[in-house]
Design a protein that fits this description.
By secondary structure, the protein is of the alpha+beta class. It contains 5 helices and 5 strands. Strands 1, 2, 3, 4 and 5 form a 5-stranded mixed sheet that branches.
């Protein structure tokens, strides 16, 4: 991390966001579409935050129903969910889902001058991850 920070400094780059917390969650494989709910709840609990504290949620749409189901289960307001259209609109690049999620919210945090964002993809086998980011510049 120090080497990456030095590279950024020498090139005059400023970070857009920092990782506050991360979490994983797993449940029965056939329930994979709702796994991000557990990951989001876990990452927010780690950071002692609630859904209302978060400005943007980017829930990857491996299937369109995932974001809708997770929003309903977790209580995420529609106006905070996939504010640029999500994977259905932006794409789901092979091998780069996490990078797409994090970059999308990092730039959106800057544009909105917002503080927190959560990214969460569901993963095959009933698993999901979540990352909580905070805008830094």
């Amino acid at each position: 991390h120090v080497q990456n920070a030095l590279i950024c400094i020498t090139r005059g780059l400023q970070p857009l966001a920092r990782v506050v917390a991360q979490a994983q969650f797993a449940q029965a494989p056939e329930r994979f579409t709702s796994a991000p709910t557990g990951a989001i709840q876990t990452v927010l609990a780690k950071a002692q935050l609630s859904i209302s504290d978060v400005d943007i949620f980017e829930v990857n749409e491996a299937f369109a129903v995932v974001a809708m189901l997770v929003a309903q289960q977790a209580g995420i307001p529609q106006e905070k969910l996939n504010v640029n259209g999500g994977a259905v609109a932006l794409g789901h690049p092979i091998g780069m889902t996490g990078a797409r999620l994090i970059l999308t919210v990092a730039y959106e945090l800057q544009a909105r001058e917002a503080r927190y964002a959560v990214c969460s993809p569901c993963i095959g086998g009933g698993e999901a991850t979540a990352v909580l980011l905070e805008r830094v510049s």
